[in-house]
Design a protein that fits this description.
The structure is a homodimer.
Chain A: H1 2-23, H2 26-42, H3 44-60, H4 65-71, H5 75-90, E1 98-103, E2 109-116, E3 119-124, H6 129-140, E4 144-148, H7 154-170, E5 178-180, H8 187-192, E6 201-205, H9 208-217, E7 230-234, H10 240-252, E8 261-267, H11 271-284, E9 288-291, H12 293-304, E10 308-309, E11 323-329, H13 332-342, E12 347-351, H14 355-364, E13 369-374, E14 391-393, E15 401-403, E16 409-420
Parallel strand pairs in A: 3-4, 3-6, 4-5, 7-8, 7-12, 8-11, 9-10, 9-11, 12-13
Antiparallel strand pairs in A: 1-2, 2-16, 14-15
Helix pairs in contact in A: 2-5, 2-7, 3-7, 5-6, 6-7, 10-11, 11-12
Chain lengths: ~425, ~425
């Protein structure tokens, strides 16, 4: 009951702050962002000391190396947090943008105005830099934010939150525009995701387990990212040089990102022309290959020995690691069918020079990003020109793919008249 | 368990049909819509006979007059169902629309393509015409539909569904593109709103109770309409003639619609110039007035006697009836504050000739439709040029206000390249 009261109080304050923020002009919001950046740079040593205490405690508690890595702040990451805030200040303000104004036969002039969503709840794990990034995006889009970071990062988050508050106050914006949940009690999350009166949308960031749990229990809309099981399909009308370049880059540019290719599909008619060369590239880079029967045969004949067999489970797996499943398919229809059946509707690419096949792939692949002759690695907010991203959505409602400032807004209808009435 | 199996089977069939529909070209979808319209006209007597059985049973069960009215089909309503289908066939196809294609510095060309959502579940009460309307909109937007109408209308809905299936078959589209849930067991709704693998969005249509229950229990995104507590604010810089015309029309054009004004706000500086005349119009038309203290005093002095006092509850009430609450406010800020506190974020209008106040009202009123010098009654799909509407959303996520074909689609990102890779 105490936690419930505490969270309700945070919710009420956020709702009040959201109204003030929705009115705040661009200059004021940018001033706050720049003041927060300054405070973070000035308080660098305080932030690093708080973070050291978090890291020491996490080490005692036996956190694994990857988590410790994400938790740890350095002088460099503090500087890039401040830099991120300044970049968001430089982005155009999405709020108030008016579009599609047209006269209707009744004489009214109808259009749309972009407006903040209201209050955004962000739930994340051990990364303290999310505190600054998420605060910046929510603020710029005119939303109040309630931030609930992992308990491992509580001291770091409090220290960053103090800088955020200072910046808000300097700009004359309400302190409650960005609130950090100060308790590590898990019940706080349960409250946050069910306070419909006070929270307009939840953005969970973290592992699939966290996101599934939240979206199961939430009573507030959730913008979520689940798997990134991305495919490249090399069509038999592909340009071989482009195919190899893209299939190499999509897998090996970075292994741990959600837009990395996890399954390579190759048309039977071109398999022998591309797979042996790609096989050499992948094995040179230490990528483990898991192959369908046809691929195993082809690669064995090409001198690779018997590669590992892909199981049904492999087609559904996001490795996030130097592992790749490969399947030879009869052609475009089979490739689309594989992608729509096993994929995660994240990002999928075709390599082809054939106009009609490119068109069919674009139309029929039901994913947030669908590409022709480009690496799946392009699917992110920076490459898409969103400036920054709050996450990548694998939902279909509201926002698909990389979510930037626009995804944190909605559009209302506006009507301008001269006294028109319905008759 | 039987109901669960039955609904899962419907869900699986819908998912398969949705894939076929997403590929279906515009001509095929229009052919199906026109064939359904023909079938409905041809089977008019069968439809009316089925409906008579529903109405007779409803009468026996003591359904109230308003519900009976909504349940009853006539030759005229059957004809307008067919006409509605033909109108939807005439609307432009939203699917495949490509927009905002621009080159990025990396050389990729990035844009958006409008695509179907997938499977839409519609849950509605006694109106059988929703079966045809909803089927038409879902089909045109490339979505499969699962329709669950009220048990009172089950025979009418089955008869309409038979016409829909015939039209789909004639066009060579899968019958499962539109499925009517054939059981009146309430557990079917519970399944429908939690089948995340098979349903992409739920649109409940009906009373507030139904919609709240569904949105509380749903595990699938819901596009919902709750209250329509709409306001007109007459500013002291209003043109008096426009103010009276709009305040009259917004209340008295129709009483039972969600975009009807329920509370009239009047700036203190203009109250004595508009309220007595409006009071005469409203009382002549039989509208009951519930007033704040200042309004009561003013109206008493103007010869109306002591009008009924508005309670706190009145400001939060959607009357859907010839009742109006009236409040005199100090000015624009107080009006906006009242609307954002007591309103339902549906549709609100200001009457003013003042440029800056109009701008402030447009920016600060957080409703799906915000109007200047126009009647709130304009907030509907037909007047907004959407051609038809599946409902009016009071949500902020995905779709706000009248929801037409676009609200039943989403946009995916598309990327066209010439072999670009990330470096």
């Amino acid at each position: 009951m105490e936690i419930k009261d505490y969270m309700q109080q945070i919710g009420r304050s956020a709702r009040t702050a959201a109204r003030a923020l929705a009115k705040a002009d661009t200059h004021l919001k940018n001033q706050a962002l720049l003041a927060i950046a300054d405070a973070i740079e000035r308080e660098r040593d305080v932030l690093l000391a708080a973070n050291e205490r978090d890291v020491a405690r996490a080490r005692e508690n036996g956190l694994d190396a990857a988590l410790l890595d994400r938790l740890t702040l350095t002088a460099k990451t503090v500087a890039s947090m401040a830099e991120g805030l300044r970049q968001v200040a430089n982005l155009p303000d999405p709020v108030g943008e008016i579009s599609e104004m047209n006269y209707r036969p009744s004489g009214i002039q109808l259009g749309k105005m972009r407006v903040p969503l209201g209050v955004i709840g962000i739930i994340y794990e051990a990364r303290p830099n999310v505190t600054a990034d998420a605060a910046a995006l929510c603020l710029k889009a005119g939303n109040a934010a309630i931030l609930r970071g992992g308990s491992e990062a509580i001291e770091s988050n409090r220290a960053i939150a103090a800088c955020v508050r200072e910046g808000l106050m300097q700009a004359g914006l309400p302190e409650a525009a960005v609130q950090v949940v100060e308790t590590t009690d898990r019940a706080a999350v349960g409250e946050l995701i069910t306070m419909r009166d006070y929270v307009d949308v939840i953005v969970p960031r973290g592992g699939k387990g966290l996101i599934e749990r939240i979206s199961n229990e939430a009573r507030v809309p959730v913008i979520k990212h689940l798997d990134g099981i991305c495919h490249v399909y090399i069509d038999d009308k592909a340009d071989i040089e482009k195919a190899i370049r893209i299939a190499d880059n999509a897998k090996t540019h970075r292994y741990g990102t959600c837009n990395t290719m996890e399954t390579l599909l190759v048309a039977a008619g071109i398999a022998s022309q591309v797979l042996p060369e790609l096989g050499r590239i992948y094995t040179d880079k230490g990528v483990e290959l898991r192959c369908c029967a046809a691929t195993r045969n082809l690669m064995q004949q090409a001198g690779f020995g018997w590669l590992k067999e892909a199981t049904e489970e492999d087609w559904r797996t996001e490795y996030l690691a130097p592992v790749l499943s490969i399947r030879i398919v009869s052609g475009l229809d089979a490739a689309i069918d594989h992608i729509n059946s096993y994929g995660s509707q994240h990002t999928d690419a075709i390599v082809t020079e054939d106009y009609s096949r490119a068109r069919q792939f674009l139309r029929e692949v039901d994913s947030a990003s669908v590409m022709v002759n480009a690496s799946t690695r392009f699917a992110d907010g920076f490459e898409y020109g969103l400036g920054a991203e709050i996450g990548i959505s694998t939902d279909k409602i509201h926002a698909r793919g990389p979510v930037g400032l626009h995804g944190l807004t909605s559009q209302k209808w506006i009507v301008l008249g001269d006294g028109q009435v319905r008759t």
